[in-house]
Amino acid sequence: MNSFPASYKSELVKAGSRLFFNPALSESGELSCASCHVPSKYYQDGYEQALSIKRVLHRNTPSILNVNYYRSYFWDGRSDTLEEQVEGPLLSINELHSNEQLIRNVIESDEALKFLLTVCKCKDLSLVSIAIAEYMRDIATKESVYDVYVRGDYELSEEERKGKDLFFGKGGCTECHPPPSFTDNNFHRIGLYKRKIIIETIADPETPNRYVLGYDYGRGNIVGGANNLLAFRTPSLINSALTPPYMHDGSFTTMNQVIDFYDRGGDDSASGLEAKNFTRDEKMSLKKFLDLLVDVRYSKEVQNGN
Known about the structure:
mainly alpha; 4 strands
């Protein structure tokens, strides 16, 4: 991956912002990165599964806030760098479906991008992926309410304190969601039932609307071994109170449903999860603690039930 001098970071972020919102990068001229990662929805889309012009995709759109916490990208970890991740939907036939000419046209219409290309001495696609990745890193969470508490400038309520104790104790949540990033960056089979989904669309103009049904095996689609089957990357819990629906398939619409799921030890016994047997009050306290993991910029929205 080509690199820029640190002095060009602010220019890259600005260029990445323009590219992120620019539908001219897409084949249809209608989609941009922001179509699925909507700023007003905390950089996700709020749908169970991502939508494109061609079809409903088979995974939930995660928020891109805090992508700097991850060591791999996509739910199955198939990209090792954020720049590589950017290229995935940009070139995918089911998403933006961009191409060399569209990318060239966008760069040629932007003087700042043309200048950055001369500095980078890289290919057009590399410049676009680098710039968008820098923008995505720049919009990360600045500080959560929990961070303010850790610093000593916020006093937990009794219910929040009980939730914290459950999270770090009985709930065992830190096994997969350790602070400060609240993700272990690993892949786990957590006990969701596998659902048959559309995994491929047949590209045949004479027989449109033909599909291949199958199962999403997550990390198992990328890496061999039984332990990887139905395993998906652990998302960060930071801002999770704001970004339903949850899980790789968007199968839970509320955080209460997620807590209930882990409380009963998942739905597929093959995962080996143990039931937590929380009381009703403990579940409420745990939810209160998860609310603390929201960026302070958005904390009032959590308090208002958004």
